[in-house]
Amino acid sequence: MAAIDNLKDLLHGAPPAMPGESEFIYVYLPQDIEPDERYERYQEPLDAELRLHGAGWVSGGGSLLSEALEDGSLECVHVGVDVDAVDVALAREILRTQLPGLGAPPGTRLLYRDGETALEDWFDGETWTLALEQEDDD
Predict the structure, then answer these.
(1) d(CA 83, CA 47)
(2) Domain membership of residue 100 as a residue range
(3) What are phi and psi of 118, to 5 degrees?
(4) What is the pLDDT of residue 137?
(5) Residues 71-104: pLDDT tens digits?
(6) What's the CA gap between 39 and 129, in Å, rounded?
(7) HEC readout, the chain
(8) Does residue 69 lie in a domain region?
(9) Which of 16, 29, 59, 69 has its CA at 20 to 30 Å from residue 53's CA atom?
(10) Mean pLDDT of 8-28
């Protein structure tokens, strides 16, 4: 994936100079898609929208794989997109607006922090529920 990210940086340049520090938002997508599809479907268009509005940029993405199954194969549990936001409220709004049109499935979540509190926006396939406290996954 590093090669794709390097190519993206060459084509788009470094993230725009923006005031202040960035905050991390993780876009949790409960689906099994290949890295190239994740990049084309989500990372590239979200990066363009975030940069266009000066809200931040996409800094990466990945897939969470299961432990080895009996046959030794692995299954994709979910994919994610990493966002560095300089304006968290605006970045969340952009993500909530764009993701449904890009094919985000029900159960998509935006994971972020407000100070020490871990929060999430949750998509049910039609509407978003905002600023829910994240539950521990123990």
Answers:
(1) 8
(2) 2-11+21-133
(3) -85, 120
(4) 59
(5) 888 787 899 999 999 999 999 999 999 999 999 9
(6) 25
(7) CHHHHHHHHHHHCCCCCCCCCCEEEEEEECCCCCHHHHHHHHHHHHHHHHHHCCCEEEEEEEEEECCCCCCCCCCEEEEEEEEEECCHHHHHHHHHHHCHHHCCCCCCEEEEEECCEEEEEEECCCCEEEEEECCCCC
(8) yes
(9) 29
(10) 70
97-132 pLDDT, tens digit each: 999 999 999 999 999 999 999 999 999 999 999 999
Q: What value does the CA radius of gyration of the chain take, rounded to a whole number of Å?
A: 15
- In this structure, what token pair is assigned to residue 84? 């560095």
pTM: 0.82
116 within domain boundaries: yes
Sequence length of the chain is: 138
Structure tokens at 112: 């972020």
Task: Give me the pLDDT at residue 81, please.
Answer: 98
Count of domains observed in the chain: 1
